[in-house]
Amino acid sequence: MNKKTLFISASLIILLVFIGAATIFKASNSHQSTKVENLDIVERVGAPIKGPLEAKVTIVEFFDPACETCSAFYPLVNNLIKRYPGKVKVMMRYTPFHKGSDQVVKLLEAAHLQEQFWPAVEILFAKQQAWTRHHVAQPQSARALLKDLPLNSEQFMRDVSSENVSKVIMQDIADGKTLEVRATPQFFVNGKPLVNFGYEQLTQLVEQAIAEAY
């Protein structure tokens, strides 16, 4: 076999390897961005929702209240509800990755049972530095920040320790694992995951869902 033949053969092999790798990457990326068919895993009945219930586009956010990025994204996600009035709603699901957050999300769910989830989460995001230390949540400090909310304190304390609240948190954690949520915030729009993280990318995914739904 002469040098020219060797060169051509080697070039063909390299080209085939490149095409194969590109095909695998494209298939993998397509799989990652594919809509989750079982929406019962993505959405949970009774989870906190902001925006009109009849909105056809649902942003589901798996979040940790001690997550700085979740705090930074909170007003940005709210802007999407305002930007597309009547078309978009947001559902929040608990993913307590930070140490101590498993107790803090119980506070939020107990507040949710008294229709105070959104005021509670806004307080915790706004004053996140007051109840976290080196990315570790301090549940007692978080609880103290919620003392001025219009809550039935006795019922609130019972709910925080209740089995029902624990089951809700465990369900969200289990669904997050099934959906391979490894970091927060993780967004799904009408069941389709946000693969490339970023506000612009989230906006594009929302606009795509609006175009498909309306």
From TrEMBL:
SUPFAM superfamilies: Thioredoxin-like. GO terms for molecular function: oxidoreductase activity. It comes from the Bacteria. Keywords: Disulfide bond, Oxidoreductase, Redox-active center, Signal. InterPro entries: Thioredoxin-like_fold, Thioredoxin-like_sf, Thioredoxin_domain. Residues 16-211 form the Thioredoxin domain. Belongs to the thioredoxin family. DsbA subfamily. This is Thioredoxin. It comes from Colwellia hornerae. The lineage of its organism: Bacteria, Pseudomonadati, Pseudomonadota, Gammaproteobacteria, Alteromonadales.
